[in-house]
Structure of Phosphoribosylglycinamide formyltransferase:
Amino acid sequence: MTSSGPNRRRTAILISGRGSNMTALIEAARDPQYPADIVLVLSNRPEAAGLARATAAGIATAVIDHKLFGKDRAAFDQALDSVLAEHGIELVCLAGFMRVLTPWFVERWTGRMLNVHPSLLPAFRGLDTHRRALEAGVREHGCTVHFVVPELDAGPIIRQAALPVLPGDTEETLAARVLAQEHVIYPAALAQVASGKARLEGDHVVFAPEAQAGARTAARS
């Protein structure tokens, strides 16, 4: 595969909805020095609002409607892989992509597929992370960018951001502050992977010395 610019890795973003983190990644990649070039936004839902946002940003879009495949997850994932191959994609970022991918697909993209999750993994894997964090009474919450592995939300961690849970926090207020941190750490993590400063080796992430320090950050609000 060839890159779309000098040392820039051809990157696809997979979405199912509004594409909030997608927008943060696109904005970061506007810098010619950013090591990833967002060349495709793909959704499993034709009505996903993020598709229009990607088109407005001048990025190619594609739709693979999962409903057309019924319960055949393998066929859907094969179609997804084919579109990525057609566009010469080197890295994949999941950004609110509400599909559980098959082990076949995940293994094909091992070390080249990232996801952002709204908790400090390994805590609160799965859904409803903010509600569960509040119910558990934790004092610290946050978000994680990790490599994707077949087990849900269990991949090796690339970057995290932690923030305090404040008195009076609701799911909505906590979610909004966590989302703001997702918009910071996802572009940073993609840059680390695209530049080779973070890579997957076996079941752990190997960082270049200068990249290790930023693996976890703390937000003040």
Remarks:
- The chain has a mean pLDDT of 94.
